[in-house]
Amino acid sequence: xxxxxxxxxxxxxxxxxxxxxxxxxxxxxxxxxxxxxxxxxxxxxxxxxxxxxxxxxxxxxxxxxxxxxxxxxxxxxxxxxxxxxxxxxxxxxxxxxxxxxxxxxxxxxxxxxxxxxxxxxxxxxxxxxxxxxxxxxxxxxxxxxxxxxxxxxxxxxxxxxxxxxxxxxxxxxxxxxxxxxxxxxxxxxxxxxxxxxxxxxxxxxxxxxxxxxxxxxxxxxxxxxxxxxxxxxxxxxxxxxxxxxxxxxxxxxxxxx
Length: 257
Ligand code: SAM
Known about the structure:
Elements: E1 16-17, H1 20-29, E2 36-40, H2 48-54, E3 57-61, H3 64-73, H4 75-79, E4 83-87, H5 90-93, E5 103-108, H6 114-123, E6 127-135, H7 136-142, H8 153-161, E7 162-170, E8 175-176, E9 183-190, H9 197-206, H10 214-219, H11 224-233, H12 247-256
């Protein structure tokens, strides 16, 4: 099969990034280090061709038609071990660490599993940085600051393991075929791994009804009298909403209740 005759498969979230300016911005935003690159969903290889110029790449692609195409397109890089392509579902392959050396995840992710992939990468001890394209709405949640309406569990989990920011917002016209929604590239620099499941359980309770007060949400699981005491200690007013509480206050709350 030729690259030109590929028809995008919706079920695999295939929207191929064609805008050279955006591709360059992704390459420029890559953290400077000696880590390997993991690319999930190389697709037609438009990002891969720049990545292999800079570093060695471990790629995971579920679509067997695209795997064959990539294997012929990147024969030289595969022969020289600059690129290794794993054909199959990345989520099936991901048990603990996805590869056995420190890596940065750089990818235009399949949107239908993007949040799941990022959460797995945040927990993966070998993953050091995450530079990915996702739906704008999802990028904003991972990069949200306290007080913003979209500040929730994803923002708090991210701030608990590192720092994040949006690199560039990307319109549908940058892709072929164009998706229905806006996208964004964002970067998370990790300094530790996501690991505390009990803390995340508390967050789920805290944000169970985002428009209600934090006190009301937490009271469904924790003792009210204890909550009143802890809120007082942390100087949190009883009417505070879940998105108005900082990551460090959530950690304090968790320690105390
Ligand atoms: N990187 C290419 C680009 O920027 O043009 C393609 C990006 S496209 C949004 C997502 C890619 O992820 C597709 O190639 C798709 O086949 C692949 N993909 C979808 N689900 C996958 C999975 N579970 N495991 C590995 N790759 C997957």
